[in-house]
């Protein structure tokens, strides 16, 4: 957006009105799509409070003790992870994650395919969805004062494998969310390999699900990449909420990972059964 704004000014100075008009249209479109990220939404301030973290572990590259320290310090009660290997499961257990979050549903895999859910609350109704390149999971957490809460851990394939496959997986994940029980809250954590700018991602927000960053008015939070000489450029990790509202969202550095983690404070609607 800033580049388009600079371009508009330059075209005006040079009196190239057609170029200036195009640049203004680009700026307006950017404002239209990005403005919701900076305007928080009101909601039930008395809802059941939970803290959720989403983390991409870069296979077993992320420092397990650093992740566990963040979970402990921030009182995280639900954790979704991507790129979870069997070695990472063991390392996180030795670092104390299973003591903090004793309930888990995991589908570890080689390199990027593994996905997992850790929870302070009992998990049931576990599902692994077929037909995806990487592992996609869901489980039901029994959270006091909120009833059953559906928890999803998603990781659609990145577009480097082909934009058609990427778009198809995002579309099928949206269909999964559309089938989510409407009688209960739901939380989604994942590396979506898509930013808020992508229409395929925003389509997931057209129903009962909302983006936590947008709900909290947290702005443009970037999460990737963190393993380069330059700072992170894009926000491809997201937390989605249904029947609840995020009141604060922030990114957290993870030693050894190539993503920042995302942490959201969420208030779930009470008493839904």
Please provide a brief summary of the model.
Helices cover 29% and strands 28% of the residues. It has 273 residues and is α+β, with helices and mostly antiparallel strands. The relative contact order is 0.17.
Write a structural description.
This protein is an alpha+beta fold. Helix content is 29%, strand content 28%. Helix 6 links the parallel strand 7 and strand 8. The longest helix has 18 residues. About 4% of the residues have low confidence.
Chain-wise SSE layout:
Blueprint: H1 2-13, H2 17-34, E1 48-56, H3 64-73, E2 78-82, H4 86-94, H5 97-100, E3 103-107, E4 115-119, E5 123-128, E6 137-143, E7 147-154, H6 163-178, E8 186-191, H7 199-202, E9 210-211, H8 212-216, E10 237-242, E11 244-252, E12 261-268
Parallel strand pairs: 1-2, 7-8
Antiparallel strand pairs: 1-12, 2-4, 3-4, 5-6, 6-7, 8-10, 9-10, 11-12
């Amino acid at each position: 957006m800033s580049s388009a704004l600079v371009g508009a000014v330059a075209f005006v100075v040079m009196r190239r009105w057609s170029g200036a008009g195009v640049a203004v249209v680009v700026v307006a479109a950017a404002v239209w799509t990005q403005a919701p990220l900076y305007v928080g939404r009101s909601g039930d301030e008395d809802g059941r409070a939970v803290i959720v973290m989403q983390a991409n572990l870069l296979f077993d590259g992320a420092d397990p003790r650093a992740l566990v320290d963040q979970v402990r310090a921030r009182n995280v009660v639900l954790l979704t992870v991507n790129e979870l290997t069997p070695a990472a499961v063991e390392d996180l257990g030795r670092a104390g994650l299973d003591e903090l979050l004793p309930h888990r549903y995991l589908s570890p895999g080689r390199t990027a395919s593994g996905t997992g859910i850790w929870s302070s609350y009992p998990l049931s109704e576990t599902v692994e969805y077929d037909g995806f390149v990487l592992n996609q999971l869901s489980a039901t957490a029994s959270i006091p004062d909120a009833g059953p809460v559906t928890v999803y851990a998603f990781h659609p394939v990145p577009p480097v494998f082909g934009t058609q496959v990427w778009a198809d997986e995002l579309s099928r994940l949206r269909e999964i969310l559309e089938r989510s029980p409407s009688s209960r809250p739901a939380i989604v954590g994942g590396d979506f390999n898509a930013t808020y700018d992508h229409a395929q991602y925003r389509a997931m927000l057209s129903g009962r699900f909302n983006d936590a960053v947008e709900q909290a008015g947290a702005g443009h939070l970037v999460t990737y990449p963190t393993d380069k000489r330059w700072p992170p450029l894009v926000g491809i990790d997201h937390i989605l909420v249904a029947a609840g509202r995020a009141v604060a969202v922030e990114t957290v550095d993870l030693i050894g990972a190539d993503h920042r983690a995302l942490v959201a404070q969420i208030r779930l609607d009470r008493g839904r059964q």
